[in-house]
Every structure is written in structure tokens, then in C-alpha cells.
Amino acid sequence: MIARLKIEECLLESYRDAEDGAIYVLVTENNNELEVDATTCQFCRSGGNGGAFYISFSGLNCNIEFEESIFESCVAKKNGGAIYFVSYKSSRSTFEEITFTNNSASNGGAYYYSPYSYSKLCRSDFFNNKCTGPNCSSNVYLKIDPNQQTEKL
Length: 153
Known about the structure:
The protein is mainly β. It has strands spanning about 5-10, 10-15, 15, 25, 35, 40, 45, 55, 60-70, 75, 85, 90-100, 105, 110-115, 120, 125, 130, 140. The strands form 4 sheets. Strands 1, 2, 5, 6, 9, 12, 15 and 16 form an 8-stranded parallel β-sheet that branches. The relative contact order is 0.17.
């Protein structure tokens, strides 16, 4: 069975979660898709990873696509101020025409990403994002570790 979730032309504002992500996406089955288009996330906060989105793929052949979306003033206590995304099996991800502004996290102020396979980030803008931890990235933090066994870092 193929499951497909599409979030389109939505405003997600001031969502808060004590754990991970205002929107928590955990995909454990094969052949699933997540698509986010023309969506704005503002002032979202989490006590863990991913201020607006926490996404974890462990199924095969899963696809994620973010297009023409805005992430502004989102905060995560740990990683990925706006988006935290980890993929444990073969998947495909595209992040295109995304604007990240004033987001912050301990690491990956705007976007924390640990891919297993094909990924594309293009035509996106990063403005005034911050990281609060040592040896961190204020915009994009990319961790390449296909042998990683746990989701929590």
C-alpha cells in the first residue's frame, strides 16, 4: 500500500511540542510520500528536534518533497530549528525554493539532515538563522552516517 500525505497552502503558526516537531512524521513502511507545498511555518517550537517538522524515514523507496515554503522564527532545543530529517533506508528528498529566516537550534539552525540516499536542496534562501551549540551550523547541518542506529542524537 502506498500512503501519500500532502500539505498544501497551509499556515502553521505558534505550534509547540515538548518533544519533537510541531508536525511529527514517522514513516516505517515502504513506498510512502510526503509533500509540502506553498506552506508557511512561523513561531513553531519543540523541546527536542525539529521546530516545525520532525521527519524520520525507515521504509524503502519513500519520497519527501518540500516546495515554495517558508520557515520563519522556528526553534528546536536540539537539532533543526525548522526541519529535522533523518532517513535510514533508500529514499529520495527534494527541498526546492524554501526560505529559512530567523530559525534557531543547538545545531542546524534552519535544517538538520542525515540522509541515506539521494537528496536535493536547491534555489533556497537562508537569512539570519542561528545555532547555539559548539561546533554547529547556523543554516544547514548535514550528517552522513548510513550506519546510524538511533534517531535521537
